[in-house]
TrEMBL record:
Its cofactor is a divalent metal cation. Belongs to the HARBI1 family. This is Putative nuclease HARBI1. One of its GO terms (molecular function) is metal ion binding. GO terms for cellular component: cytoplasm; nucleus. Transposase-derived protein that may have nuclease activity. Does not have transposase activity.
Length: 324
């Protein structure tokens, strides 16, 4: 079992095979252990799961790598995924009221403008390739012409995920995903007096949540061009977070997940949980290539005069004569 021997060799670099540093992997094992766990069983389960996630190979290939039955690999992967998902609210959560000022200052620094100090999140969507069910394959075909499941995420100024929502088929528009997510329907975030930044494919909102998008007709207004410039700088942190996650789990995000569509959202959620664990442990793996998706504004609601006024009232008035 070469991959298991690799873990036992304390001098070995685990990232090429497990995509996590030894410290992050050991931290994960510790988080998933319970008082009922003992011996090597719980260690082996986590190693099998992370290796499967890192390589995105079939259960059969993993079973040969660890010299255990294929059915055992399947059971281990699903068991660890369920354990990891139970940690979701502990690992992925909104900042406390006391932390909001720090988050806002972080976004102001990213934007290069103090007017963005009321921004406490950046939201975007990500398409994850899947093998679609034969009966509903067309629903999973996205605008880029591949089958996918969607991940909507909000992150803070450090790239930590604050909220995730996954499972909608790839053909569904970003706005519909947003408006069916608990973030929107339950008005979970941001708190009153704060806002989050979205791309052009999202609507600009003042209710049920405060979501600010870039101006679409910015070329004729200097202040709007400046706003869009600072907005893009601040919002890019979510793109960077997706880029880091895609680099770490390349096999998951750059080839179709060979699992049932019902399990795919759980695997995606596990990747976001592991992303936050990595960030909190300083296990940095810079994106090999930043993935910036152009704003798809073709069928997005136009930013009307009332929405523009809200956006400028929230942010622009503080820096209309500021630096660009």
């Amino acid at each position: 079992m070469p991959v298991l021997r690799l873990y036992l060799d304390e001098a070995a670099d685990l990232k090429p095979d497990y995509r996590l540093s030894r410290a992050s992997l050991q931290h994960l094992i510790g988080m998933l252990r319970s008082h009922q766990d003992h011996g090597w069983g719980d260690y082996l389960e986590v190693l099998v799961f992370v290796f499967w996630l890192a390589s995105a190979t079939s259960y059969h290939v993993v079973s040969r790598s660890f010299n255990i039955p294929r059915t055992t690999v399947h059971d281990m992967v699903h068991r660890v995924a369920k354990k990891l998902l139970k940690l979701k609210n502990r690992v992925i959560h909104f900042p406390t009221h006391a932390d909001l000022e720090n988050v806002g200052n972080g976004f102001a620094q990213l934007a290069g403008s103090p007017a963005f100090s009321r921004v406490v999140g950046s939201i975007d969507g990500c398409q994850v390739r899947v093998k679609p069910p034969s009966a509903d394959a067309q629903c999973y075909l996205n605008h880029k012409l591949f089958y996918s499941v969607q991940l909507q995420a909000v992150c803070d100024h450090q790239g930590m995920f604050l909220d995730i929502f996954t499972g909608y088929p790839g053909s569904v528009h970003d706005t519909r995903v947003l408006k069916n997510s608990p973030l929107y329907t339950q008005q979970l975030y941001p708190p009153e007096g704060f806002c989050i930044l979205g791309e052009g494919g999202h609507p600009c909102l003042s209710a049920a949540i405060a979501l600010i998008t870039p101006y679409k007709e910015a070329v004729r207004l200097v202040v709007a061009r400046r706003f869009n410039h600072h907005h893009a700088k601040a919002r890019s942190i979510i793109k960077r977070s997706f880029g880091i996650m895609k680099t770490r789990w390349r096999s998951i995000f750059f080839k179709s997940l060979e699992v049932k569509p019902t399990f795919a959202p759980e695997v995606i959620a596990c990747c976001t949980i592991l992303h936050n664990i990595r960030v909190s442990n300083g296990d940095i793996m810079e994106p090999a290539e930043e993935v910036f998706r152009p704003d798809d504004n073709a069928d997005a609601p136009a930013w009307g005069a009332d929405q523009g006024a809200y956006g400028s009232g929230c942010l622009c008035s503080g820096w209309s004569g500021g630096s660009s």
